[in-house]
Amino acid sequence: MNEAEIATLAAILAAMVRAATPLVFAALGELVTERAGVLNLGIEGMMLMGAVAAFGTAHAGAGYAAAMAMGAGAGVGMSLLFAFLALGLRANQVACGLALSIFGVGLSAFVGKSLVGTPIEALPALPIPLLSEIPVIGRALFSQDILVYASVLAVPAISWFLFKTRAGLILRAIGENHDAAHDIGYSVLKVRTLAIMFGGAMAGLAGAYLSLAYTPMWVENMSSGRGWIALALVVFATWVPVRALLGAYLFGGVTILQLHAQNWGIPVSSQILAMLPYLATIVVLVLISRDETKIKLNAPACLGKVFHSGR
Amino acid sequence: MTAPLAAPLPVPRLALKGITKRYPGCLANDGVDLAVMPGECHALLGENGAGKSTLVKIVYGVLQADVGEILWEGEPVRIDSPAAARKLGIGMVFQHFSLFESMTVTENVALGTGDPSPLPELGARIAEVSQRYGLALDPDRRISDLSVGERQRVEIVRCLLQDPKLLIMDEPTSVLTPQEAESLFETLRRLVAEGRSILYISHKLAEIRVLCEAATVLRGGRLAGRCDPREETAASLARLMIGADFAPPVREAQEIDRSGAARLAVERLSLAPLVPFATPLSDISFSVRAGEIFGIAGVAGNGQAELLGTLSGETLVAVPDAVKIDGEAVGHMGPRRRRERGMGFVPEERLGRGAVPDMSLADNALLSAHRTPGMLKRGLIRFSRTRAFAEKVISTFHVATSGPQAAARSLSGGNLQKFIVGREILQNPRLLIVAQPTWGVDAGAAASIHRDLITLAEGGAAVLVVSQDLDELFAICDRIAVMCHGRLSEAQAVRATDVEQIGMLMGGVFHLNEGEG
Fold first, then answer.
1. Which domains are delineated in chain B?
2. CB atoms < 10 A from the CB of B128, how many?
3. Contact assignment for B102 to A176 by CB distance below 8 Å
């Protein structure tokens, strides 16, 4: 390989990681929510609200830290709306989640009207000393911005929380059998509300990454279906965080490769190539669903079920 | 309190005074008093729906009483959560286990005790306690891989780790085999000998008489009486529970017409396993005549589920002739066509197969009875007729429920079973296949279901009963055969055999007999 080819490879890898990052955030958040037994289909809406809130804050000159906090906060706000409907009023989770997605698309477009077409400076990269010097990998992995690092570090942190801590055990127990957990004396609603809020914060960060770093601007509906891909990734990952990371990177990889394939002039219509990431998702989901035991072992048994305390 | 557990205190460990709990539309507990002494195994007896479960949930802090007082070792206490109950020293083993299927034994125990110690340490303590009380358990196994008996041990160990002074057991034997029940009794006796108190909820009179030294009987939410079960007979306990004289139905000797085609004939039926771990059926033959009650005994898991599948039509067999109704080969027909030929079917699982849990009784009635004339009009449901049909089932079979609009899930096991059996019987089946008709059903409801089956047979229907309960089969059947390892023994006339002989067959001894004969 000559130098130019190596540089291209590094650029492609770096782009893959960047394409995957919003998915990692959103999928990890949804994974925790679902582990508590709640199916929140509103990721798309929460992401968009996170994106517009983060962008608006940065655009006003309040700095990136404040922008990220506002993005996460907007996601939490949206998720609390969902928690109120699905837990407080015991409405159907699927319907509430869909409504939240549609609502988020509209509300973010409304709020962000004046922001369209006003670019900002992208979130700066933070090369890690020494590691970023490694050829190819250094540029792909260790010369990214802080949100990319945070998304990767979130994987071991969430795994540790879910599988090593008591709080994680309780959260999984509530997703597995909320009646039994209630009988033992755990507060199903409290834990689920916290899990939904965490999912909201992560979706908000995913949106913030889109509008601050991936494409530093605000465009209506700029998440373009990533919330739904993240949802599929959770099933793909069979509710295991590290598999969600792998799935996100796979999806990011296919996304970037199809872009390059269009450049390389492969004689396939660009529309077909653009479909590839979504087709890959469907194929993988079908393959996963064939292995029933794997799903059963990890799937939260109470996923999407309404909890009634009382008798 | 530092007094050793074994010291006999004059005050009751637990005393309830005037406990009243009202639900919308029903008074679950009405001024109930109860006292459990230290080192006592105290039975709480009552029919389904008598308010036993509500009462113990109040003691365990899952529910709060509307009126009444709880005294713990003489002191008035408020128990507003299970955590508060556990703090006092109350442990509870639920009838429907509070276990988490995909988690390990240790994780389940950690969840139930609120014990903050690290999991490996907890695992060691589980091993120690399970050894001390003869409750064999592996802390690292997943709940989903455990048998029902082992799951119950997890629940018990979970309680024992907290060193409870009072252990509440809610119908612990309803899911156990006789051997598992016997080993449970051993454990409980050991606990009582240590000075712990046990509040034992059951409607199985025989086990209460061997296990408990005091009993409180509830009826319709009220206190019906207290007694020493060792000095009572099963009949006198049943009278206290039911409030009326208790006469189990008796099946008179029958003359069965054996000419012509049998109502149900199974000939050389074999079936390879459809799913892993299913029992293959090999060479099963028997027949049930009009007016006859035929029993199939056997320990669960010996092929009964697979046989029932082929009889109901849920599993089709390759040779249509292997199953015949009135001489017509039906082995290739699904449930609908078999029902059109006069078959009724009551499966073992009430919720999920016998009835849709979240649908109303009226809708559940329609699901199997839509062939009854008048229920449908040009494919549309006539709701007044389905309601009337459900109401008829409810009144004819004395189902305790708020009405045909009640969800199937809201009924107690016994009442739902009465409803399902009644729904099938009111369709006037010529052949009724019933699996475990009285599993988890109390004595009064069981007697009434038995009476209904006998009446149905007297009306000329053929009845096939598959059950693990030998007393039940001997009470109502004319002939009994035994299933073991997917094979069926020769049928025996009930009057020509006894429990001991059938018990031997259940252990698989009939293969030897066949070899000799």
1. 264-342+429-516 (3.40.50.300), 359-421 (no CATH)
2. 11
3. yes
